[in-house]
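Notes from the 1:1 (GR / supervisor)

We went over the backlog. Supervisor wanted to see one worked example end to end before approving the batch request, so GR pasted a single chain during the call. The sequence is below; no edits were made to it. Supervisor asked that the structure be written out right there so they could see what the output format looks like.
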Amino acid sequence: MSVEKLRHETDEGVVFWGCDERGTLAGVTGIQDVRDVILIRHAYVRTSGQKKGIGGRLLSHLLRLATRPVLIGTWADAVWAIHFYEKNGFQKVGREEKDLLLKTYWTIPERQIETSVVLADQTWRDLRANTQGLSRP
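Structure output shown during the call:
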């Protein structure tokens, strides 16, 4: 991420957190309050640090900070990322809802909307079910 992009993201309210492994930044991710949800943004772990729990520690830290439902957007082709988030309790939302969420909470181009997925935490799914008159099994 360029310095300009980093400044833009922080100006937009993204707060970044990092994981230090023996003096090296091993992973970084951000959290952003947007309206009535929390977005997890820009999750990266160095290749040498992958599969060592760094991403999980960062995500757990951000989830402890979250005071509202959490949404995560990622590329549809990033199957490793989707699997990671699903393993950590997130579930993909349907296509129509995904498009609406991306247009509501993110500022991204239409092409990115077409090629992305949104994953939601249990709190968001529970709230969504309650507003639709549904209940969890």
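Supervisor's comment: The CA atoms of residues 29 and 58 lie 7 Å apart.
Batch request approved.
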